[in-house]
Amino acid sequence: MVYQAESKDENNQIIPEAFIPKQNIRRISINPAWEYQKAKIRDSLNNQTNTEIYARRKIEVEPVFGQMKAHFGVTRFMVRGLEKVKREMEIVMMAMNMAKLSERIG
Q1: Tens digits of per-residue pLDDT, 31-44?
Q2: How confident is the model at residue 61 (pLDDT cuts 50, 70, 90)?
Q3: How many CB atoms lie within 10 A of CB 15?
Q4: What angle, rounded to 10 degrees, do the helices at 48-60 and 62-72 form?
Q5: Apex CA 29: angle with CA 26 and CA 33, to 5°?
Q6: Disulfide engineering: 5 pairs with which of 18, 20, 81, 101, CB 3.0-4.6 Å?
Q7: Strand duo 2-4 + 27-29: pairing
Q8: Are the C-beta atoms of residues 5 and 26 closer than 8 Å to each other?
Q9: Are 72 and 95 in contact (CB under 8 A)?
Q10: What values do phi and psi take at 79, rounded to 5?
């Protein structure tokens, strides 16, 4: 669906707010399928349990990966396979813990 602003009012006067800086008429495009998906997710997040899980995610997990990327340059794993990835992750976590310890001691 595309909604388009009216360029003239009932007195046949041009409405300046109906135009963008390039002098084209303002338009709004709405994708009904996308709006349905957004509403579905919004309803899901309004559930108390899901809200708590989402809030906890921001606190617990995201900063760790941000620190891995920013301070240690870990953006991808260098190995393949679940066991090897687990080992690599353990090494990175040990390095992060050692860095934290050295900050506390030093």
Answers
A1: 999 999 999 988 88
A2: low
A3: 13
A4: 20
A5: 170
A6: 18
A7: antiparallel
A8: yes
A9: yes
A10: -125, 170
